[in-house]
Amino acid sequence: MAMIGSYCTVCKKRESFFYRKYSGQQLCKKCLSESIETKVRTTITKYHMLKFNDKLAIAVSGGKDSLSLLHILAKLQKYRPKTTLVAVTIDEGIKGYRDEALDIAIKNCKTLDVPLHIVSFKKLFGLTLDELITKVRANKQTELTSCAYCGVLRRRAINIAARAVGATKIATGHTLDDEAQTVLMNILRGDIARLSKEKPATNQVHPMLIRKIKPFCEIPENESALYAYVKKITFQDTPCPYASEALRNDMRAMLNHMEEKHAGTKFTISRTIEKLRPAIEQITIKEDFKICKECGEPSAQNYCKTCEMLHQIL
Ligand code: SF4
Ligand code: ZN
Ligand code: ZN
């Protein structure tokens, strides 16, 4: 917590607003937001996330992380005038939830003068997430969580949306917390392939799969929220009614507890995996992409995960 009456360790003139426990710094609002922007800039450089003339599709959900990212990337454009920004939003079709998020995404993009491209599950896959979950539940196909269905379809939708706008990279608002949770989840599931694939800047594995970058991978989630608060960014904070990833929720609770007791835990996990990744990449089998016989999208099997999933349901 920021101590009442204490001063910012960086500028030494403004009152502290936030105590950054892992670095021991007291930060005023201005120094906090500037340090987050600087961190994003250095992360982009460190992981070679952008080329000078990239067209970047920012996946905007309407939540705090993707909107803080959108605002920061729009601000950082002054350092990269040749990088073009476009926002893509996926309308999964979640009644009473996604509609509000769409409005918020539209308003933020308008303020920042960033074009927005919206793609819906209904148009791409013929049904909304609400309709899909109703079918799954009626057929008692409950072995997967709602998020598992949504995740597969959303990844596909974002890639299609990015291709439609001619993007060369996709930026997502995954934070340090998301990254640390994902690492532990992949370890608990024994999913070595994912440990090697899910990194700050993905490899180009197929010309139809747009590379993804995570400029917030070293920004803790609470700081992303504070950035949105300090910058008065309007975002959606009601949770998705399907939010059901039990393992991720357990990881989040455990990591927050560890971070509280041992500040810097999330960074340690992230740094450790970055050091280990080259060795893990050596022992994982490279996916050989074919074209899905049903939809024509790249796939490791004859039929892609999306088509397989939709076949089971429809
Ligand atoms: Fe989809 Fe789950 Fe996110 Fe809801 S919480 S939008 S179901 S991934
Ligand atoms: Zn300051
Ligand atoms: Zn397919």
Features:
Rossmann fold, two-stranded antiparallel ribbon, five-stranded parallel β-sheet, 12 helices, 9 strands, 314 residues, alpha/beta, binds zinc ion, binds iron/sulfur cluster
Give a quick precis of the structure.
With 314 residues, the protein is α/β, with parallel strands linked by helices. The protein has helices spanning 29-46, 64-76, 98-112, 121-125, 129-138, 146-164, 176-189, 192-197, 221-230, 246-261, 265-283, 305-313, and strands at residues 18-20, 25-27, 55-59, 84-91, 116-120, 169-171, 211-213, 290-291, 298-299.
CATH hierarchy: architecture: 3-Layer(aba) Sandwich
Percentage of residues in strands: 5-15%
Helix content: 40-55%
Indicate the CATH class.
Alpha Beta
Largest sheet: 5 strands, parallel
What is the tally of beta strands?
9
Strand order of the largest sheet: 5-4-3-6-7
Find the CATH topology.
Rossmann fold
Poorly predicted regions: none
- Mean pLDDT rating: 94
Gyration radius, to the nearest Å?
20 Å
Helix/strand structural class: alpha/beta
| DSSP helical segment count | 12
Task: Give the SSE map.
Layout: E1 18-20, E2 25-27, H1 29-46, E3 55-59, H2 64-76, E4 84-91, H3 98-112, E5 116-120, H4 121-125, H5 129-138, H6 146-164, E6 169-171, H7 176-189, H8 192-197, E7 211-213, H9 221-230, H10 246-261, H11 265-283, E8 290-291, E9 298-299, H12 305-313
Parallel strand pairs: 3-4, 3-6, 4-5, 6-7
Antiparallel strand pairs: 1-2, 8-9
Helix pairs in contact: 1-9, 2-3, 2-9, 7-10, 7-11
Bound molecules: iron/sulfur cluster and zinc ion (2 copies).
One zinc ion binds at residues 8, 10-11, 14, 28, 30-31.
